[in-house]
Amino acid sequence: MRYNIKNIVNHDGKIKNCTLAVGNGIVSDIRPGYISDAETFHYAIPGFIDIHTHGGDGFELMDNSPRALDAISRFYLRNGTTSFLTSTVTDSLDKTAAVLETVRAFLPHNRELSRKAEQAECLGVHLEGPWLSMKNLGAQNPEYCIVPGTESLALIEKFRDIVKMVTFSYHTLEAQTLLEFLNDRGIVAACGHDETIDERITEGFQKGIKVVTHIYCVCSSFQRVNGLKHLGTVEVALMTDGVKVEVISDGHHITKYFWDFIVHNKSYDDILIVSDSMRCAGMPEDPEKTYKLGEIDVIVDNGVAWLKDKSAFAGSVATMYSNFRNLVQNWGVDISDAVKITSYNQSRLFNLDHLGEIKAGRKADILLLDKNLSVCKIIKNGIEVPGTVSKSVSGSGLSTL
Questions:
Q1: 315 and 305 in contact (C-beta within 8 Å)?
Q2: What is the pTM of this model?
Q3: Would you say domain 1-47+356-401 falls under CATH 2.30.40.10?
Q4: Residue 329 carries which DSSP code?
């Protein structure tokens, strides 16, 4: 397939007024100028890579069923996320192991359907807990919150082929053993839902914690310990080059004021946009309806997923696409920087050199957009995703998103 593109957008700039050719699952060629027998689109951007997402369209990973994994993988692709890490929530080690078994069995099926452009590709699992702080659990279940011990390490070892990232609080002595364990196995260590103080998290960053999970969302911040003032993970991360921070750029978890403060302190190289979406994403909003995040009751009101008593947010109803669009259209982020933080940085964090860029030889996971950033076509593995609406720059029609 060949497409005329006004702007191919990568993390390092734009390629203007060119023909994009895809075939055999990859970008086969990019040439200057247009051809007469191809549709013209305003933007081509890499497909989004979501490294922190629990579900959508009424399903979640913790449902622990192939049907749920099928549904969320299709939902992500329909919304422009072409690859993802599926995320657990805090639960018993036995339940977590069962979920991981289900994911492992699902992956060959997913790879085949991803190859056919029917599902987003599951890259593995992000374990969000259960090794968190009781003080900053948010919407995690306190019944299953534990410190990492022998059984925890055995669980991760058993599933080290699919566990790609682990979120934990670094405030305990046991967490240091967990960090060393993750580093030895090449698993990305992330700190979040924590009560870690400045001197401790500084040590953690030096020893290999690479990511802060959804910054400003139940991360440790300024606090007093025994009457003495300390910075927390938020502040130390913002002043430590090379530490990546997850951001839910939906305008609720992070408002424009927070965003401006983050980018004042962090390079775009160190920002990772995530959705943290749960089962309510893509569902009709009804404040009277109760959903489940793991075993926790959640409602959705005014575009936000809440604990039922509205004491805290509970994941999100955002998608990577809605986050991307908010960044560019409402927060004034340059579109190349938006691409960097929604696909390129994620691909580099997990050494996925075939993803995150539109260049010859890279995997053809691409979104074609109009000048208003509406999605016209989704291309997965070089194939147009069935059901997406074709719309050239000059044409009309409805976006699928």
A1: yes
A2: 0.95
A3: yes
A4: I
